[in-house]
Backbone:
């Protein structure tokens, strides 16, 4: 018996991609029936990423059209619900196609719909551009319903996520607990990568520090209570930032990544042996890192290690990880937890019985979101 719902039992990447969409339903950004209609058309075409893009974007255009029709009738809340779902379907659709103008255009459609969706359904979310070196990093600021300076979380994505998803599945539960959220696309992520061409960097204390500098200028933010959090690959970024920048009051690794180089050594063996336990196509890592090929990527990843870095962390630290995580095995989280120098540190391992035992709770995002939000509320 499987510990999670695998829509395509013979294709882990596609099954994970389906769950990416399905698990957004809790925040009004997906409908399981619509996604199942996509899935039915994809059955028998597993691995055909062109077909994947075609079916997801066809549904996205259909749902966006329904939104336009409701908007014309003056039904803004209803149109907003359609726009949010269309945004997520556009993003899911572009996930497995290689970098190209078509990919950027599909993501722009996601941004267009998401912007209209939050204006109507989540008006407490605003667009923010964070000054960073000689440019800016795009972000969404989710303002909690609280008076006076309040705690805030800077939240980074992973290898193939974006702020349009994380501000909802991560941010909403946190904001309900009186904590503001800055969901930001850092270097190598989301909009910063797609539309600005900014690749990843190992020293993530630089973009994290830029985010801290920016949000602490806001009167509603308490500078003494700003946490940094990262999701999936962000489980390397956030601990790195917290260890190197003592201004952060807490750190969350939503998926622990002690050694990203070693993680990709394992994944490369799977890729080269024809294995299926992968979360992204072969182009993803070189694109994110701004490298020409996998060999160059492995050289760059030599610096993406927390050994000797995690020991410097002093703020409260929380790592949540799934026991059945096939993408980032549990031992990475255990080694990260052991290395972190903070006196107050916790490793929460979710098993199948708990729900959320897959990679970053992609099998039950609601469980992970509430656990993370509760820990932040307790510590901030």
Residues:
């Amino acid at each position: 018996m499987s510990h999670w719902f695998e829509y395509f039992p013979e294709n882990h990447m596609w099954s994970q991609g389906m769950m990416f969409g399905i698990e957004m339903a809790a925040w009004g950004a997906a409908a399981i029936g619509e996604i199942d209609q996509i899935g039915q058309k994809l059955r028998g075409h597993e691995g055909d990423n062109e077909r994947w893009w075609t079916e997801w974007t066809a549904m996205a255009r259909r749902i966006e059209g329904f939104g336009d029709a409701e908007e014309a009738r003056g039904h803004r809340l209803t149109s907003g619900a359609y726009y949010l779902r269309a945004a997520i379907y556009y993003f899911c659709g572009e996930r497995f196609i290689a970098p190209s103008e078509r990919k950027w255009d599909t993501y722009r459609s996601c941004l267009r719909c998401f912007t209209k969706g939050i204006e109507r359904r989540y008006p407490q979310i605003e667009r923010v551009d964070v000054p960073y070196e000689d440019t800016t990093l795009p972000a969404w600021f989710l303002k909690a319903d609280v008076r006076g300076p309040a705690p805030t979380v800077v939240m980074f994505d992973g290898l193939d996520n974006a702020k349009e998803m994380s501000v909802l599945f991560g941010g909403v539960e946190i904001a309900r607990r009186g904590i503001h959220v800055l969901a930001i696309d850092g270097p190598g992520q989301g909009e910063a990568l797609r539309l600005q061409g900014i690749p990843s960097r190992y020293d993530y204390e630089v973009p994290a520090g830029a985010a801290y500098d920016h949000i602490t200028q806001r009167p509603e933010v308490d500078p003494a209570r700003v946490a940094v959090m990262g999701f999936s690959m962000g489980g390397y970024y956030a601990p790195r930032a917290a260890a190197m920048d003592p201004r952060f009051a807490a750190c969350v690794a939503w998926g622990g990544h002690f050694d990203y180089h070693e993680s990709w050594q394992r994944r490369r063996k799977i890729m080269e042996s024809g294995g299926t336990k992968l979360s992204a196509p072969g182009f993803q890592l070189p694109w994110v890192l701004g490298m020409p090929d996998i060999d160059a990527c492995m050289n760059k990843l030599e610096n993406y290690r927390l050994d000797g870095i995690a020991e410097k962390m002093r703020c409260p630290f929380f790592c949540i990880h799934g026991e059945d995580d096939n993408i980032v095995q549990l031992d990475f989280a255990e080694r990260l937890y052991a290395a972190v120098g903070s006196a107050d540190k916790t490793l929460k391992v979710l098993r199948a019985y708990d729900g959320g035992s897959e990679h970053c709770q992609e099998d039950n995002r609601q469980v992970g979101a509430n656990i993370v939000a509760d820990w932040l509320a307790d510590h901030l």
Observations:
- The beta strands are 125-132, 135-142, 150-156, 180-184, 221-231, 250-254, 317-322, 345-350.
- The longest helix spans residues 49-72.
- The chain has a mean pLDDT of 96.
- The chain is about 45% helix and 15% strand.
